[in-house]
Amino acid sequence: MNVWDWSVFFHNLVHPTILTGLWTTIWLTLLTLFLAIVLGTVVALIGRIDSFLTRGFYQGYVAFFRATPLLVQLVFLYSALPQMGIRLSVVEAAIIGLMLSESPYVAEIVRSSLSAVPTAQWEASRAIGMRPLTIMRFIVFPQALRIAVPPLGNEFVRQLKNTSLVSVISMTELFRATDNLTQANFRVLEALSVATLYYLGATAIWTLLQNAFEKRNSRWFADTGVQKTENLKTTAV
Amino acid sequence: MTMATDSPGAFLQLRDVVKAYGHYVALKGVSVSVEKGQAIALIGPSGSGKSTLLRCINTLETISSGTIMVGDEEIGANTTSSGRKKLSEKVLARQREEIGMVFQSFNLFPHMTALDNVTSGPRLVREQDAGKARKQGMELLARVGLADKAENFPRQLSGGQQQRVAIARALAMQPRIMLFDEPTSALDPETVQEVLNVIREVRDSGMTMLIATHEMDFARHASDRTIFMEAGQIVEQGASSKVLFDPETERCRQFLAGLTGVEATTH
């Protein structure tokens, strides 16, 4: 048996099992990250309400879901809940587990991004008669979003990798698909190389999208490299 | 010392306004009355309460006691014989619309162009039609001399230009009073005049205004009355020509001498 067989590599690269697994990994990542952003934002907004109860809830929520491993959460959802009469399908358990485990990280990013917008922005908005919801939506959120995007990009990459854990509850995503394939021909090296390549590719595409977004915002944001010096030249009038 | 008295023609009337933060009392019973169209200069050392006073007038800060009236309307609270009740956020927001505020550090919205900054109030608060808001916004930018900067973001503008945009943003709400909180203190010396010229133009248009400032020259020539504050109290107030050239109190004289040491010799 050769150490490396290109024909197996290329065969795996376009193998329907792998491609289906890749697709599952991608939609699972995007869907659960989206849900985690929604949930995390709601949790962060609750945490901003100035009361003992809401702050306690926020801290408890973040502490709990951040302190328990994703693997334990997934197995709990899939295997322990049935004992309490709650039966989740593999896909349901995977989606809920990935969403819950990611949400405290998003909540922390949202919370810190919101508080990074200077209070002077709130004051200037109030001074022209804006109400809190208007200020949040049109003044504070757009500015916080710009601050939140780089760390949220990290979370995409983390979430992409985390999806491999749902293989443990038998969901066939990229990693499990790869593993299935090796059961047939025992060529683990080529199969895992293909999986690695796809993980890298997905991350690279995401990075390009994120850079495009950041560049677009650098029109108004002060400390983002190249654009800054260009603009300074045109300003000094 | 000139004590404030209620004047029947007063448009803005503060009576015994107290503002305390815990044990620290920032305003210790301030009474001011301003007639419509008057420009008032607020002077005094840092921490004397000038900014706090302005922030109380447009209810960014809630006063601890006293009353503030603009026209016939009490600002920030409803005082009756049974006590003082804070107004709802909705009513406060409506009152703030009509009291323009310009900050020392401009506080423009960095993610909006100059034009969008100016139209933000009409669009987001008054839900004015975009085309109409835009037209009015362009007129205001032209008024402050920045029509050609409409599509620039704040960070592409100099400090003086940003402050002029901030003035236009406040004017876009057609306020009844304009408050300026040290509007030129954060500016490069070269750009101070362009901002003062705009403020002077706003005054000439008949706007009632209060301006906290360290620009004594501006106070002398562009304000009708000057109020000298220290430690949360009004020490002296009167016609600017009197307070700034021939103050009655020793403290005011000291302050002016210290501030305009070089300048004083030229007068």
Automatic annotation (TrEMBL), chain A:
**Localisation:** Cell inner membrane; Cell membrane
What membrane topology is annotated for this entry?
Answer: Multi-pass membrane protein
Q: Domain of life here?
A: Bacteria
Which keywords annotate this record?
Amino-acid transport, Cell membrane, Membrane, Transmembrane, Transmembrane helix, Transport
Q: Short name of one Pfam family for this protein?
A: BPD_transp_1
Q: Name one GO molecular function term.
A: transmembrane transporter activity
CDD domains, from UniProt?
TM_PBP2 (cd06261)
Its GO CC terms are: ATP-binding cassette (ABC) transporter complex
Q: Which Gene3D superfamilies match?
A: MetI-like (1.10.3720.10)
Q: Which residues cross the membrane?
A: 20-46, 58-81
One GO BP: amino acid transport
Record NCBIfam families: HEQRo_perm_3TM
The name on file for this protein is: ABC transporter permease subunit
UniProtKB/TrEMBL annotation, chain B:
Q: State the GO CC annotations.
A: plasma membrane
The record's principal subcellular location, in a coarse class, is membrane
Q: What are the alphabetically sorted keywords of the record?
A: Amino-acid transport, ATP-binding, Cell membrane, Membrane, Nucleotide-binding, Transport
By its UniProt entry, which InterPro entries does this protein fall under? Answer: AAA+_ATPase, ABC_ATPase_HisP-typ, ABC_transporter-like_ATP-bd, ABC_transporter-like_CS, MetN_ABC_transporter-like, P-loop_NTPase
Q: How does it sit in the membrane?
A: Peripheral membrane protein
Subcellular localization:
Cell membrane
Keyword Phosphoprotein set for record:
no
Which Gene Ontology molecular function entries are recorded, alphabetically? Answer: ABC-type amino acid transporter activity; ATP binding; ATP hydrolysis activity
Domain annotation ABC transporter: ranges:
12-256
Q: Spell out the Gene3D superfamilies in the cross-references.
A: P-loop containing nucleotide triphosphate hydrolases
* Protein family per UniProt: Belongs to the ABC transporter superfamily.
Identification of the protein by name: ATP-binding cassette domain-containing protein
- Species assigned in the record: Endobacterium cereale
